[in-house]
């Protein structure tokens, strides 16, 4: 029969029931008032920024230039009588191609401008040269012969509002120089070249002057018949 000593009895592990787990602490839902406060402050700052921006000058581009027109009213210098009857008008368009070339590559120095020009050229008859011998009326007043000078073409008039620079290519040094100038020189040169081309095109087109002569003759015939003249012969010398 086995014998158990007191030491062996005390060292035997005793059964202990498992401990009950502690209850979970309540979740911290946070403080919503802090988030709302930050949101209100941000909305206030954004609204104040746009309000001040509307009161102060534009902050978009501090280097943006503004055009201030201080031109005085036009002064009348003289009035000149015009005895020219403009009886026809031709509308033209031309694209001028101006290039300034140098011995250096165009990427370094040089420029090329494409300018689209629109304008009109009038044709008419100068009536200031007429005298009593140019208008002959028959004895009974029923017929008349009117002799006029041939129609001529007037200088071209550019349509500034519809003319524009289509493209401009500049070299490196030209672009640097453009920072200190407005480019008025090449625009003026383009206008002059365009006017020359319009005048050449109108002069080469004889239909414009012929149309002006026909319209002038029709106008004078209408006036003469309104005065009681039955037959009107308009001739061009």
Structural write-up:
With 237 residues, this protein is an alpha+beta fold. The protein has a domain at 84-236. Helices cover 33% and strands 25% of the residues. It is built from five helices and eight strands, in the order ααβββββββαααβ. The strands form two sheets. Strands 1, 2, 5, 6 and 7 form a five-stranded antiparallel sheet that branches. A hairpin with a 5-residue loop joins β3 (135-137) and β4 (143-148). The chain is elongated and about 140 Å long. The relative contact order is 0.15.
Salient structural properties:
elongated; five-stranded antiparallel beta sheet; about 35% helix; three-stranded mixed beta sheet
Q: Per DSSP, what share of the residues sits in E-state strands of 2 or more residues?
A: 15-25%
Could you report the average pLDDT, rounded to the nearest whole number? 76
Broad structural category:
alpha+beta
Query: What letter string, H or E per element, gives the SSE order?
Result: HHEEEEEEEHHHE
Number of helices: 5
Give the biggest beta sheet: 5 strands, antiparallel
Q: Any idea what the radius of gyration is?
A: 46 Å
Helix content: 25-40%
What's the overall geometry? elongated
Record field, number of beta strands:
8
Oligomeric state: single chain
Uncertain runs with pLDDT below 50, 5 residues or more? 179-183
